[in-house]
User: Which sequence fits this backbone?
């Protein structure tokens, strides 16, 4: 069902309001039609009762030899009069006593005659009564032409006791009146829908406009773009939301900047004592002790350099540029693999434009490729576009990673390789730096083991 709805909040609310208006209009029309039907049926019933009373009074006052003529004159395609020794109605139906009393009072003879009346619903199409005279055939054809489809009708039987001991039996049917579409109601609905729709569209614009601005600013802020203050607009609730978002941006930016400066300062200040420790270690006479201290110092030095790289990775000082992703990846691969042939590239057949900080992104991609070379000896790089996302896959044929460790390896200073060798394990910050940089661009990195051995690291970035 969702595919049939408009995508925007404004469109969905407007459609909901118009559907509610149409439903209310249809309900009113249905109620009006029902009341109209009841009124028309009541009028037809009263007319048939008055007609029966008039015929009964004529028969009571006219000579007996005129009775057949009176009956033939009173007959119509939907009303049949007859005189008989027995009543057609055994007893008055429930709820018809009042109408029967009205017929008796309209006859006006003394004593008041007995009147029996019966009403019941029938689904049979009203047909002209048989036995008509004169133009009855033509009238029946006209009636059938006016009623092309079966409709429900009400059949009413009336039996009036005459003074000579006979009964005047009346059989009449009146059908449900056809529903007539009132074009004035349609026009009223159309005008109301247009006016309400226009008013709601303008009013909702005051809500959706600031919401779109908030969404755009949040997306840009998530990609690491420079935070900018949004001017509050719209209702008070939206103004409060905009103010809270502006304050949140400022607090997050200040927190990230403070953490970056702290990491950079700490790593920079550790360089001097580590250099002095390395110089003092060279003066130790015992070879084994000297080598161990030098190795430990070099490992600490690499951790400091990696920490500085991590701090540079989370820094957003570099401006954002719109670039062709395949060109950035091709340039990096060419720099890393000028002659060894250990890195192969499969660029995208179409241009994939993304917004990123080129230097930071090259650092992240370099870490992924170096990780593949360290554990697999070779790296295969693919670039392609997947809908609204740009993807870069770095694949190797190394030992892979246990699936329960996929997220753990992105933590800072985590190394699954336990030898602590710098040549095989590094400092444990490469994947952390890479994911931090990619996430600051609004993307992410996912890991997956390859069939036949190896690992695939897929970098996903939003398309510009």
Assistant:
């Amino acid at each position: 069902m969702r595919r049939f709805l408009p995508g925007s909040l404004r469109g969905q609310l407007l459609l909901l309001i118009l559907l509610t208006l149409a439903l209310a209009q249809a309900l009113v029309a249905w109620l009006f039609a029902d009341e109209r039907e009841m009124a028309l049926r009541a009028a037809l019933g009263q007319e048939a009762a008055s007609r029966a009373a008039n015929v009964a009074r004529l028969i009571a006052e006219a000579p007996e030899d005129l009775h057949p003529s009176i009956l033939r004159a009173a007959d119509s395609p939907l009303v049949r009069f007859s005189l008989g020794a027995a009543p057609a109605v055994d007893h008055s139906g429930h709820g018809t006593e009042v109408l029967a009393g009205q017929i008796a009072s309209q006859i006006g003879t003394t004593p008041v005659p007995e009147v029996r009346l019966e009403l019941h619903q029938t689904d049979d199409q009203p047909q002209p009564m048989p036995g008509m005279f004169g133009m009855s055939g033509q009238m029946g054809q006209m009636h059938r032409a006016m009623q092309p489809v079966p409709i429900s009708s009400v059949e009413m039987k009336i039996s009036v006791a005459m003074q000579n001991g006979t009964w005047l039996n009346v059989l009449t049917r009146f059908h449900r009146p056809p529903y007539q579409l009132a074009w004035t109601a349609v026009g009223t609905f159309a005008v109301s829908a247009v006016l309400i729709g226009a008013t709601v569209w303008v009013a909702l614009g005051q809500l959706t406009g600031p919401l779109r601005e908030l969404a755009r600013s949040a997306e840009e802020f998530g990609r690491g773009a420079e935070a900018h203050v949004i001017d509050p607009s719209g209702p008070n609730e939206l103004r409060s939301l905009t103010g809270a978002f502006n304050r949140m941006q400022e607090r997050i930016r200040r927190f990230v900047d403070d953490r970056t400066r702290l990491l950079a300062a700490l790593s920079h200040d550790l360089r001097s004592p580590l250099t002095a420790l390395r110089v003092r270690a060279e003066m130790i006479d015992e070879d084994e002790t000297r080598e161990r201290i030098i190795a430990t110092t070099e490992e600490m030095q690499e951790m400091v350099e990696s920490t500085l790289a991590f701090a540079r990775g989370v820094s957003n000082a570099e401006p954002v540029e719109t670039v062709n992703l395949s060109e950035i990846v091709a340039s990096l691969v060419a720099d890393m693999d000028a002659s060894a042939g250990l890195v192969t590239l499969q660029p995208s057949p179409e241009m994939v434009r993304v917004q990123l900080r080129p230097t930071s992104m090259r650092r992240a991609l370099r870490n992924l490729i170096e990780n593949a070379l360290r554990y697999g000896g070779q790296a295969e790089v693919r670039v392609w576009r997947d809908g609204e996302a740009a993807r870069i896959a770095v694949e190797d044929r190394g030992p892979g990673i246990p699936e329960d460790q996929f997220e753990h390896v992105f933590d800072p200073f985590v190394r699954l390789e336990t030898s602590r060798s710098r040549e095989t394990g590094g400092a444990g910050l490469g994947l952390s730096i890479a994911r931090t940089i990619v996430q600051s661009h609004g993307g992410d990195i996912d890991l997956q083991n390859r069939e036949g051995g190896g690992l695939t690291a897929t970098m996903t970035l939003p398309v510009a």
